[in-house]
Amino acid sequence: MPQPKTRSTRNKSTQSNQQTSKKIDETIEKTKEKGKQIVSDAKEETSKIAEQQLQTVAHQINSLASSLTKTADNMEDAHTWIADGTRQTAKALERVSGSISESDFGTLVHNFEDYTRRQPVIVLGGAAIAGFFLAKFLKNSSDHVKEITQKNDD
């Protein structure tokens, strides 16, 4: 027959359980804090990469605008109305490039979300058109790969 636990043994057992519970709680809190830090670091790194990519895009848009301006200058004599339209497009691209360069990623995302709320039809239409061109591009790429594969097999 087991002997009843003494009051001292029960107290030690209760203290041991409380200490174990406290250590588990501390470990959980440390794990949560570490997880928050990892997420924060990942967000910061993602933001840095996005900022670098935005600067690259802004530079490319600006280069395109410069090319369009030169093209407009070259056709000024022959086709004035086309040159004017090309120059206007170049100026608009320069404004977009400047806007991208001056804004951070979060601001651009916020502005896009706001625009999407105000003009959902335009955004959906643009997405549909982009999807159409992407599908066409992928199909043409696939056809080209098949063509090359067939030539290599022959």
UniProtKB/TrEMBL annotation:
Biased composition (Basic and acidic residues): 22-35
Keyword annotations of the record: Membrane, Transmembrane, Transmembrane helix
Transmembrane segments: 121-138
Region (Disordered): 1-35
Protein name, UniProt field: Membrane-anchored ribosome-binding protein, inhibits growth in stationary phase, ElaB/YqjD/DUF883 family
Organism: Nitrosomonas aestuarii
